């Protein structure tokens, strides 16, 4: 039947569309990036489904995207021959917010801070809101589609003016795939121009691995003001490079292209902090392009937080969020891994068991750790007051060496020649701040690695930073600490607490302060748990100042010790009374040398659960 059905958008979509159409735009052009990326996703999906069902290719095995405009009709059309949509899929995917990320983004736009219209416009511009971005330039969008494998009569036409509702009706469409037809607003004339379209496509979509075609135009003499005009020739030509970015040689890729690619795969609008692009050869062959984001997503701590790495096999997209490719504590890393060895039909379950995947995971983990070591080393270089060279780079690397031309995103600005001094200094300062930025966002996640990745525990430990009794900023590494240890000091001392103030004011620190011994202040919720897995650093034991009797080793004053022993003898009756009075509350009561001003403090047994952990478990209702 030909019935037109009118349906309402999901409430959130209507709200989003209202935002899209009522915000001012500094960069309208991102709509094209979003629609081309959907076209490319649709082709990826077809390629994947066709692995099992080659018939889905019908008579058009070459996947492509076409961008065309019609000046007279004022339309811009983006057509792909990808997977297409059935009527129900068009209703479900275009009428609701399918992607949870978009929902979260929305709540940021409309949430606590209530961005004003121009800020909203900025945000939408940087982030993109997928399909709905089309309404930035169009007052009406028509989508014509037919899903691969369905009959020509089973196509669908979807149309909406971007207000509260949309219409769907059946359509006969010989070609599989989708056309998105934008009926341009009055102020969007610039997109009826081939030059402008090509410029936007190469800016945002150059890395798309499919050809994006536009019709060639040629000059035709005429009677108008300009003496002629450009007319279409019927011949189509690619306007992008059409090779997946990670397959190209590094020397051909600019920093901007790397950053743009990152934005397109991460849905992040900020440039990444660092990246690493390598082809790994050896028994397992793969290409990795891994990025460290500059900002943590708000759901980093959710159980459902998805891994950020996409898996390709020989350039064929296999899956998003391939959690088997990196350990959980590196879940903030985004990027692409393209394997030459895995079968195309690999499933998530198979991935967990594959030996190739194990090799990829180990190699990629080492890659990420070296990227971080690199950032950390640069921040040390730039801060001469802290000891240089404490971070031992590349220790324990056992993966096949990356290409000798390896040129990562963490380029060493210090070595760049011919830069004006002021610029170099600014770049230097920016480079120097990167590790601190990384650590503020992801340090807590990295700590999970102490418990999760035994093989790399030492490398991870070197990357950790803490505040201490001599530093308010979280910038003290275990190595820095060791370099400052007192003559005769035999342990790295630390205290855990809920806040920096609580840690700093703890009576347990009194004797350390008196003797001028630095103590690391740990206030992160995961510290307690993570430190359970780290007993020493580089041969020096870690010792909580809140556990057991503090043994200051050779730093202990003999006279003090003796005095304490005598006092313990003298106070025995008092201690016995206290023990009896507190028998349900305290295991032991003893005289201590750890206090200077305070009369008493609580400590836990040497191997007991620490107080912080006990408190956490209590909070969790255990
Ligand atoms: P996202 O691409 O992040 O999923 P979008 O808002 O861009 O979000 O698109 C929403 C959904 O609409 C897509 O997930 C897809 O299912 C469907 N869709 C959009 N464009 C196309 C297309 N060209 N071909 C097939 N499906 C599409
Ligand atoms: Mg999209």
| Low-pLDDT segments, ≥5 res | 384-407, 410-418
Shape: elongated
Provide the list of bound ligands, each named once: adenosine-5'-diphosphate, magnesium ion
Strand order of the largest sheet: 1-6-5-4-7-3-2-8-9
What is the residue-mean pLDDT, rounded to a whole number? 84
Strand content: 15-25%
Subcellular location: Cytoplasm
Family: Belongs to the heat shock protein 90 family.
GO molecular function, one term: unfolded protein binding
Pfam families: HATPase_c_3, HSP90
Report on this model:
It is a single chain. The protein is 34% helix and 19% strand. The chain has 18 helices and 20 strands. The protein is elongated and about 110 Å long. The termini are far apart. The structure holds adenosine-5'-diphosphate and magnesium ion (MG). Its main location: cytoplasm. Molecular chaperone. Has ATPase activity. This is Chaperone protein HtpG. One of its GO terms (molecular function) is ATP binding.
What would you say about this model in short?
It is built from 18 helices and 20 strands. The chain is of the alpha+beta class and 622 residues long. The longest helix has 32 residues, at 421-452.
Topology diagram in text:
Layout: E1 5-8, H1 11-22, H2 30-49, E2 65-70, E3 75-80, H3 87-95, H4 100-110, H5 117-127, E4 138-146, E5 155-160, E6 165-171, E7 177-184, H6 194-204, E8 212-221, E9 228-238, H7 255-266, E10 274-280, E11 286-292, E12 308-313, E13 316-319, E14 334-339, H8 348-353, H9 355-382, H10 421-452, H11 457-463, E15 466-468, E16 471-476, H12 478-483, E17 492-496, H13 500-504, H14 510-515, E18 520-522, H15 527-531, E19 536-537, E20 540-544, H16 558-570, H17 572-581, H18 611-619
Parallel strand pairs: 2-8, 12-14, 17-18, 17-20
Antiparallel strand pairs: 1-6, 2-3, 3-7, 4-5, 4-7, 5-6, 8-9, 10-11, 11-14, 12-13, 15-16, 15-18, 19-20
Helix pairs in contact: 9-10, 9-11, 10-11
This protein binds adenosine-5'-diphosphate (ADP) and magnesium ion.
Magnesium ion (MG) is lined by residues 34, 37-38, 130.
Subunit structure: Homodimer.
Region (Disordered): 380-413
GO molecular function: ATP binding; ATP hydrolysis activity; ATP-dependent protein folding chaperone; unfolded protein binding
């Amino acid at each position: 039947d030909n019935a037109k059905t009118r349906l309402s958008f999901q409430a959130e979509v209507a709200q989003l569309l209202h935002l899209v159409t009522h915000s001012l735009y500094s960069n309208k052009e991102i709509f094209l990036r979003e629609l081309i990326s959907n076209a490319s996703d649709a082709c990826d999906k077809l390629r994947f489904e066709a692995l099992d069902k080659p018939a889905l290719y019908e008579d058009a095995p070459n996947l492509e995207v076409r961008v065309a405009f019609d000046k007279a009709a004022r339309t811009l059309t983006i057509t792909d021959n990808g997977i297409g949509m059935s009527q129900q899929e068009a209703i479900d995917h275009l009428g609701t917010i399918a992607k949870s990320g978009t929902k979260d983004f929305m709540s940021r736009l409309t949430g606590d801070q209530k961005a004003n219209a121009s800020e909203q416009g900025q945000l939408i511009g940087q982030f993109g809101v997928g399909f709905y971005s089309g309404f930035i330039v169009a007052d009406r969008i028509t989508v014509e589609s037919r899903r691969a494998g369905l009959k020509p009569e089973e196509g669908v036409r979807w149309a909406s003016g971007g207000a509260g509702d949309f219409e769907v009706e059946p359509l006969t469409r010989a070609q599989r795939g989708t056309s998105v037809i934008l009926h341009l607003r009055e102020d969007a004339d610039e997109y009826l121009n081939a030059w402008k379209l090509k410029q936007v496509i190469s800016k945002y979509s150059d890395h798309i691995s499919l050809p994006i075609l536009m019709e060639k135009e040629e000059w035709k003499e005429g009677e108008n003001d300009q003496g002629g005009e450009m007319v279409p020739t019927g011949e189509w030509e690619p306007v992008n490079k059409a090779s997946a970015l990670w397959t190209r040689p590094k020397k051909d890729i600019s920093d901007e292209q790397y950053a743009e690619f990152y934005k397109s795969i991460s849905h992040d609008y900020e440039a990444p902090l660092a990246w690493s692009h390598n082809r790994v050869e050896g028994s397992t062959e793969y290409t990795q392009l891994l990025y460290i984001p500059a900002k943590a997503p708000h759901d980093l701590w959710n159980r459902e937080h998805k891994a950020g790495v996409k898996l390709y096999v020989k350039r064929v997209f296999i899956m998003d969020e391939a959690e088997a490719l990196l350990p959980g504590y590196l879940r903030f890393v985004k990027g692409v891994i393209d394997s030459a060895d895995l079968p195309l039909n690999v499933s998530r379950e198979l991935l967990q068991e594959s030996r190739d995947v194990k090799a990829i995971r180990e190699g990629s983990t080492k890659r990420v750790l070296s990227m971080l070591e690199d950032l950390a080393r640069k921040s040390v270089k730039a801060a001469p007051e802290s000891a240089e060279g404490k971070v031992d780079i590349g220790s324990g690397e056992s993966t096949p060496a990356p290409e000798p031309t390896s040129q990562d995103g963490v380029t060493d600005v210090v070595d760049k020649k011919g830069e004006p001094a002021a610029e170099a200094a600014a770049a230097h300062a920016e480079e120097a701040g990167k590790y601190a930025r990384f650590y503020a966002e992801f340090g807590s996640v990295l700590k999970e690695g102490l418990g999760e990745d035994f093989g790399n525990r030492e490398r991870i430990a070197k990357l950790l930073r803490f505040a201490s009794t001599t530093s308010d900023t979280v910038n003290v590494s275990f190595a820095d600490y060791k370099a400052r240890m007192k003559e005769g000091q035999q342990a790295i001392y630390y205290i855990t607490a809920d806040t920096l103030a609580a840690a700093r004011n703890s009576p347990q620190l009194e004797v350390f302060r008196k003797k001028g011994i630095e103590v690391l202040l740990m206030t992160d919720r995961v510290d307690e748990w993570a430190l359970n897995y780290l007993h020493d650093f580089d041969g020096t034991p870690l010792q909580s100042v809140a556990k057991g009797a503090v043994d200051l080793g050779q730093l202990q004053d003999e006279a003090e010790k003796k005095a304490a022993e005598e006092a313990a003898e003298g106070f025995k009756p008092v201690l016995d009374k206290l023990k009896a009075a507190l028998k349900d509350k305290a295991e032991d009561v003893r005289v201590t040398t750890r206090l200077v001003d305070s009369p008493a403090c609580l400590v836990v047994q040497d191997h007991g659960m620490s107080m912080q952990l006990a408190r956490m478990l209590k909070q969790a209702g255990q």
